[in-house]
Predict the structure.
Amino acid sequence: MSSAPLLLTDLYQLTMLEAYLDQGMSEDAVFEFFVRKLPPGRNFLIAAGLEQTLEFLETLRLSDGESEWLVSCGRFSDAFLAYLSELRFTGTVHAMPEGTIFFADEPILSVTAPIPEAQLIESRIINLLQFQTLIASKAARSVLAAPGKNLVDFGLRRAHGAEAALLAARASFLAGFDGTATVLAGQRFDIPLFGTVAHSFILAHDSESEALENFARSYGESVTLLIDTFDTEAGARKVVDLAPRLAADGISILAVRIDSGDLAAHARKVRAILDEGGLRTTMIFASGSLDEISVRDLLAAGAPIDGFGIGSRLDTSADAPYLDCAYKLTEYASRGRRKQSEGKATLPGRKQVFRRHDADESMLGDYIGLHDDRLPGTPLLECVMRNGRRSSPPETLQTIRGRTADQLARLPPALRDLDTADPYPVTVAPRLAALAARVDKATDQLA
Amino acid sequence: MSSAPLLLTDLYQLTMLEAYLDQGMSEDAVFEFFVRKLPPGRNFLIAAGLEQTLEFLETLRLSDGESEWLVSCGRFSDAFLAYLSELRFTGTVHAMPEGTIFFADEPILSVTAPIPEAQLIESRIINLLQFQTLIASKAARSVLAAPGKNLVDFGLRRAHGAEAALLAARASFLAGFDGTATVLAGQRFDIPLFGTVAHSFILAHDSESEALENFARSYGESVTLLIDTFDTEAGARKVVDLAPRLAADGISILAVRIDSGDLAAHARKVRAILDEGGLRTTMIFASGSLDEISVRDLLAAGAPIDGFGIGSRLDTSADAPYLDCAYKLTEYASRGRRKQSEGKATLPGRKQVFRRHDADESMLGDYIGLHDDRLPGTPLLECVMRNGRRSSPPETLQTIRGRTADQLARLPPALRDLDTADPYPVTVAPRLAALAARVDKATDQLA
């Protein structure tokens, strides 16, 4: 899925590649992916999308169809098209493992490769890393807001296309969600699948009770039933009436779903109806325009809700639908580079991030240094690809999910809050600051 | 691209299908796609995504790999899996042509098919229609804000995955953009491609002047040069110095691009520098965190900008990243259906939208009626698929783009404004209102 066509790139990558080729520029470049600043309402981000990035780099090549189309465009030289047909990614990649917490200005991926290769991949690398990082970071907030609750990605319908839906299911699962409703994500990524029943099924029947019973009998044991099609509490009473008949046939009602109205008020009334009806173990699952804020508020209000289906606002990261991120040249031909564009200046050189922890393993602060710095703390970027080959086999999603949980447990308490906290301390280390000053001085002389 | 795997659906569609099969429920259902309410900041929406929806319906089938995986899950009966393997879409579809302006509660697509077929397709139909409608509607606002300006989609990097980037390029082009930077969208949809040069190219050189000249010589005639890597006005002066040398070799400088700082102030200074340097026909192209509001404000401030690259905020529809939309059962076995869930009640029956215009062809108001109503105005939904086959060949993107331009020209002046206007008049016609009341009464007796 992530082995995208080579032409999934911006036109200027191709015109720049042709110019590099014309100039004979092919020395090694370092490009780094980082977020310029955290979006409003985020105290941290979670690195995600590396696996798809590595798949993309491993399989990068021009297809015959693409090649023919480029020829038909008449825009590029034969020499360039021949070069592009042979192009493979042969570079080296350092990255933070997926699930690692990070902050503004910290590179999570660093590519060292001949400049045409490192340049061409920019568009898709940003496309892959920014989206999963965006969603994993959003999902982690629900995970922090609802400890011990069942959280399910319901976002396929409002996700921005097919790939967004699949990758949002992956990113939310690695961030700690329990699963997704998107069947194809279950197949592709081995993510647990959850599902209930829709209003249309109820409405296609002549009575709600009959619909609920038919669905439960077809579904079999541990069914979840939707009860808000007409009147939520009446729906709950129908479930209570139905339960003994189903139990006689070995079918238990795992949960009821509420999808509209005042969820806290309905959940309280429904809980009482279920409890009085002997369905004390039947859970209440809520859905409908939810996000981490409404989940937190529902739980703070004591709403007896056991699980949440979170869709549109998760899969689009609705309050912050993109990251102010970049993949920037920081070194070419062994010399540090940085742009000085207003408000967008970058740090030069290949970098490393060092994280310090206290005795309880809680995060204390980070240094951004040069890759060969020796600074206090654990270096976070590891070599994941050398000469175009992975340094180790792909990680399982469960491994990444475990790492995220471990990382979230190390977050300073203030940063775990959904409200905006004081920024986590990130310091530019002295040698990097000195390099930035030197590059500026050299640039001022040369520009 | 739009022939997605059948398993790109929500789990509950499969469990409901199995239940329909178990109950022998296979009569015709009508499902309609509509938007419940316009997002904040939108005075109208533009229907888009129908072409991909029809492709999806035409090619819907379970692959062998999907079938094997479903068997391995052990969740479904053999009878159901055999049924699913044979399932094709055989229904009839009525829809507003792409590029049609529409409003809340108006169905833009109506599917009539045996209920399992009409149900299964829900997830992907919403996924396709909501995203392109979202982006076309967002893009149209820039088109209205910047008449006569060159508008280019720059959104691949921050789009939510590959399909989002491609479909955003398509949706913004049909809404009136001039093209995209996404090469693959050029190949797939025959959309004009635009590109400039990135900061990395400049930074990989030892001098900005040398970089600009090298790029221009490699690119050839009509090049666009990026001038804000270090100091925007100094960059413009370098372009002026460079122009005669390039002109001697037949290379003209089509435009300069500014990507940072106060774009209006820089554009004015750069315009003066270019004019004094004899580059009166060289255009100024602006980019960097733009949307229709900043474009409007730049032009209102008299900024001499000729074109805009609009990326992240367009491709994510950042101020409204999803639509409150639904695909709802409105009829089953020839009887109208509607849910009564709080805040989410729907209108029953298969519908038609009738639009009235004044003598100048400006839009006056719409009726939502039943499909067999005869109401004043032009009916907007047409039969586009019958028995699973398209009623006519796919429309070209240019045809759709022309329709959108025509539709935008008919918008009442107040709705063309970027600020929120009084709502356009949409009236539920009497027979539809009467049907809704009858369905409610019948439901109350039966539920």
In short: Chain B touches chain A through 104 residues (CB under 8 Å). The mean pLDDT of chain B is 96. The longest strand of chain B covers residues 28-37. Chain B has two domains: 11-135+322-446, 146-315.
